[in-house]
Amino acid sequence: MLSRLARPAVAATRFAGSRHATATLPTATQRHASSFSKSDKVKKQLMEQLAAAELKGWTSEEVKAALSMEIQDPGMNYKGMMDQVNELSLDVDEVYYNSPAGVLYDQALRYEEGSAIVSSGALAVKSGKKTGRSPLDKRIVYEEASADDVWWGKVNIQLDYKSFLTNRERAVDYLNTRKRLYVVDGWGGWEEEYRVPVRVITSRAYHALFMQNMLVPPTAAEIADFESGKVKPFVIFNAGVFPANRQTSGMTSSTSVAVSFKRREMVILGTQYAGEMKKGVFTIMNYLMPLMPKRDLPPADRALPLHASANIGPDNDVSIFFGLSGTGKTTLSADPKRALIGDDEHVWHANGVFNIEGGCYAKTVGLTREKEPEIYDAIRFGSILENVGFDEMTGQVDYDDVSITENTRVAYPLKFIPNAKIPAKTEHHPKQIILLTCDAFGI
């Protein structure tokens, strides 16, 4: 793969309604973070052998010439990421790591059926049979360390450790059959004291771009030190293209979303709906935040995760909008007269409020610029449109088209909202707390 990126290339990029041979792939020297191939593993081993031999008299240019290779950008978390890929025995041809949107667009258009660039510049994708989350298929591993911290029942359903390992092995085996994988590193949470490092390993470019939008983006320096912090990354293995085995103990369908807090891992099988990853991170934060900064503190001094949107006014008055999916959190928080902190998931702690996410995941059914201009204008290059209908000739999206699902969505980075507060955190406490409801009776 690096040999392809090492020289400019013109690729035919598929737009809705036409083909344009105008998309130039970035060169190896231009990428912030892109892809690694099997040869990179060999190069990494050679570099380690050179280091072991203590060839201190060699310059970097001499080492480069000796290996006939390009030295990696020191700002990239190359070694740590490749170490984990090697540990999992993922012997794939290509690994795309925190790749730019243009690279992931190209990958989706090449290899993922139903993907197209619509008239606004957003990438339209299909999530397959599942067009929403599968809460009945969600499981939490019963582990001694966390057993007393989980409210077990119909929502938090137990899974035995052996079944989790069975699903994990199934996911890794599937990922190992792919020619290419996509790895995303990012943060859950904007507040450094509380944030959680998250790594996503997936087989779909659409999933990678989605999570790059939804996780808090790391800086180049943070990527370099991503695995050397006080806690190791929480890893999401997204093998959702491949089904779970119904015969595995604890499975009720071919879909499984399972999390082990002890292993700091989540495994997804049998669903390609990207929202499972987003809510997976929220599940992690719902478990970890109430135990921070220290679990022996009284509840008022610990962090409270919220399924709520938040914004802040010119007088630093913070408003919190609680509500389930579809009750208006995203719409009401996108107020042009107030700064948006976030549209869905937050943490309220002793020193203020911070957004868990780096982006927004908004419903698009019935969307118009007149009703929701901030959200409408955020649908542009870099955004992901999920399961929407569009004219294949013009690329024009029909937001009233619910032929695939009524749960049509768009995922975009927070920075696409002009009045977004970045970093998405504040030291001020909420002054307005609003509870949103929406049910079949119109209440």
Structural account:
- This protein has 443 residues and is of the alpha/beta class.
- It has helices spanning 2-5, 38-52, 60-67, 78-87, 101-111, 161-176, 205-214, 220-224, 275-288, 329-333, 373-377; strands spanning 9-15, 18-25, 35-37, 94-97, 116-117, 123-125, 138-141, 158-159, 180-188, 196-202, 234-239, 256-260, 265-269, 304-312, 318-322, 339-342, 345-349, 352-355, 359-363, 384-386, 389-390, 397-398, 409-413, 425-426, 430-435.
- The strands form 5 sheets. The chain has a 9-stranded mixed beta sheet with strand order 3-4-9-10-11-13-12-7-8, with helices on both faces. Strands 14, 15, 16, 17, 18, 24 and 25 form a 7-stranded mixed beta sheet that branches. Strands 5-6-20-23-19 form a 5-stranded mixed beta sheet, with helices on one face.
- It starts with a helix and ends in an 8-residue tail after the last strand.
- Mean pLDDT is 85; it is low at 1-15, 17-32, 52-56 and 66-76.
What shape does the CA trace take?
Answer: globular
Beta strand count: 25
Strand content: 25-35%
Instruction: Give the distance, in angstroms, between the N- and C-terminal Cα atoms.
Output: 55 Å
Helical content class: 10-25%
Number of helices: 11
Radius of gyration: 22 Å
Query: Which segments are poorly predicted (pLDDT under 50) over 5 or more consecutive residues?
Result: 1-15, 17-32, 52-56, 66-76
What does the average pLDDT come to? 85
Gist?
The chain has 443 residues and is α/β, with parallel strands linked by helices. It contains eleven helices and 25 strands.
